[in-house]
Amino acid sequence: MNAWLTLAIAIVAEVVGTSALKASDGFSRLWPSVVVVVGYGVSFYCLSLVLKTIPVGITYAVWSGLGIVLITLTAWWLYGQAIDAMGLLGMGLILAGVVVLNVFSKAGGH
After folding, report:
1. Domain count of the fold of the chain
2. What is the DSSP track for 53-79?
3. Which of 98, 12, 14 has its CA nearest to residue 62?
């Protein structure tokens, strides 16, 4: 499977796991707790596959950066978490950093 697609799966699985973490209520609710463990398990397994192809710095920057943005948007949608102008600016800067690292940096292995 394509490494970038595998990385996308890792990101989505981490966002699902993190979203369920709140719903697990400190691991006191069974099914949300199962979703947390499975989500993180799938995410880390996919990351381990991605690291065979994409350098660790790039992998982690994309995984964590996009994960931060997606979990913030998910928390806004699912849990009504507020996002203010500075939060939007911060997410924009995170996305810009991921793009710069991947498109312009020699660290990306391009």
Report:
1. 1
2. TS-HHHHHHHHHHHHHHHHHHHHHHHH
3. 98
pLDDT digits (tens, 9 = 90+) for 62-100: 999 999 999 999 999 999 999 999 999 999 999 999 888
Average pLDDT, the chain: 93
CB 6 within 8 A of CB 44: no
Residue with tokens 């006191």: 28
Domain limits for position 27: 3-108
Q: Where are the alpha helices (DSSP H) in 1-110?
A: 3-23, 30-50, 56-79, 85-103
CA–CA gap between residue 57 and residue 98 (Å, rounded): 11
Percentage of the chain beyond pLDDT 90 is 85
What are phi and psi for residue 37, nearest 5 degrees? -65, -45
pTM metric for this prediction = 0.89
pLDDT for 108:
57
